[in-house]
Amino acid sequence: xxxxxxxxxxxxxxxxxxxxxxxxxxxxxxxxxxxxxxxxxxxxxxxxxxxxxxxxxxxxxxxxxxxxxxxxxxxxxxxxxxxxxxxxxxxxxxxxxxxxxxxxxxxxxxxxxxxxxxxxxxxxxxxxxxxxxxxxxxxxxxxxxxxxxxxxxxxxxxxxxxxxxxxxxxxxxxxxxxxxxxxxxxxxxxxxxxxxxxxxxxxxxxxxxxxxxxxxxxxxxxxxxxxxxxxxxxxxxxxxxxxxxxxxxxxxxxxxxxxxxxxxxxxxxxxxxxxxxxxxxxxxxxxxxxxxxxxxxxxxxxxxxxxxxxxxxxxxxxxxxxxxxxxxxxxxxxxxxxxxxxxxxxxxxxxxxxxxxxxxxxxxxxxxxxxxxxxxxxxxxxxxxxxxxxxxxxxxxxxxxxxxxxxxxxxxxxxxxxxxxxxxxxxxxxxxxxxxxxxxxxxxxxxxxxxxxxxxxxxxxxxxxxxxxxxxxxxxxxxxxxxxxxxxxxxxxxxxxxxxxxxxxxxxxxxxxxxxxxxxxxxxxxxxxxxxxxxxxxxxxxxxxxxxxxxxxxxxxxxxxxxxxxxxxxxxxxxxxxxxxxxxxxxxxxxxxxxxxxxxxxxxxxxxxxxxxxxxxxxxxxxxxxxxxxxxxxxxxxxxxxxxxxxxxxxxxxxxxxxxxxxxxxxxxxxxxxxxxxxxxxxxxxxx
Length: 688
Prior knowledge:
Blueprint: H1 4-34, H2 37-60, H3 62-69, H4 73-97, H5 103-127, H6 164-171, H7 176-190, H8 193-204, H9 210-236, H10 263-277, H11 301-317, H12 323-331, H13 334-355, H14 357-365, H15 369-397, H16 402-419, E1 471-473, E2 478-479, E3 489-491, E4 498-500, E5 513-515, H17 522-555, H18 562-578, H19 580-590, E6 593-598, E7 604-610, H20 612-643, H21 653-687
Antiparallel strand pairs: 1-2, 1-5, 3-4, 4-5, 6-7
Helix pairs in contact: 2-5, 2-8, 2-9, 2-10, 3-4, 4-7, 4-18, 4-19, 5-7, 5-8, 5-10, 8-18, 9-10, 9-15, 13-18, 13-20, 14-15, 15-17, 16-17, 16-20
């Protein structure tokens, strides 16, 4: 017999134990909730936002970087492709070996490296001097001296004399290499995010939820560019050396092709965002329970841990032995290899279009970089975001098979491709510049002839013929400089300067001119609206096809080859599209340049104005040809998917339903076996 004191003590101890058990279960449940696949999805989505934010911001600032360093478009294309070089260095190894290691931690380290790369890109601004744009008017000189105007008494001593030391200082300082190295580091950091993140979701998410989750990730890749373009628009409107120069002395505006915005500010912001994004990944587990079985972790915990330990030992033993067999299996997969070919051709077209879109729209429609970047974000990104979400929901709700997904992706992509040909209609003429695109009489001339910049009205002026400092005359024509317009007098300072008594300007007024190129007509603004509307429709249709198309890629390879397959796909698209496309496309754009800027030593700098008709043929025509050729292998992909049983395909939803029912029966069976013990334990406690 127990004494009353002993009985009370035991009863009190049991009550405390019973109270502690729910607290323990609650704590365990809290940790489990933090470790669920959805928590990883949130962190990964934010990583997609941050990486696409910095990538889009880089693309929006390429024009500013080109002007800052006075480099041709081909070098700008190389700078853009340097990101893919960094990605290429590690993509295969990370994709394969990354699945053997702690994937969340590797993703977190990648985010930190991306932040360091963004910081390095901004570094040249702090290491080089102030930006000095090409002009005949020196803010430091007496503006009333009129030394930049037409004067018959001027000698040729005002012509720039090439100085070899100045050339070495300007050209061979190569400060843009910092941008290249920073972009390479940013590419290295971005490497583990997509292949390891998607394979992690594919391993631990329900197969029916996988398309929706990938759609959410793709949405993150749209939210990031939206923020990046807004940030780019804001920074492009701020002068690069704001705070250290008097902006009132500037003779250029944001619409001028010599204007450079504060491109470095955005990269500092991107660096901070990427580093903050890395923090959650260092607290996520290496493995997760399969989605849908989280509530039964306790009863299968020992079995699961045992399996994971055995799997880890096998992975360590076979860390490298499976690499070559996996590569052989993927290379012998016709659907997978044809899908890579389609992706390479499509990526060549899209990378070219997206990289040089701000430059093209700026030259075609005469808008500032800041305005163009804002319009791109406003019209292009929201429909893509909506399309990704709708595409993922449709795949989940209707349980679309791989065969149907291939048909949907092909048809939608083809419809969008055919609609893109309407963009050839929404065009504008060249800027009317006397001696470049038109004669001094205002007649359009098809070819540029350097001697045409001089005319009877300005030969007596002894003007600089290469320096780009355009003015807009009363007659609606622009002139390369006030001197070449024959102007003999100026009033006002800075951007408000007005030039008078211009002998080349044939107008009924006082033959005056103002700084800058003449604005294009209202018809050009209307055409820009049509172009953007067609772009909006095309982006929405194509984004609907993106998720079904990506599911074809994921389902056409075996589960154990999935991470390597995604990495190899990214490797091929980067080496055959991401790296070469901006370089050769930039070189083709350079061939359409009508007037190059001039450095102090007389060497050519960045291009100031393009032949917009040739520019349009290259910008719209080449991507159209590349995309058109991609539909031939795409037809074979659709046919092969129709005839073959793919490794990741489950055509019958009933099979999945049967598996789900079997799992539920096992769980109920375990609960039934456990219930007598629970009841007996409860009865014993009641009796006590």
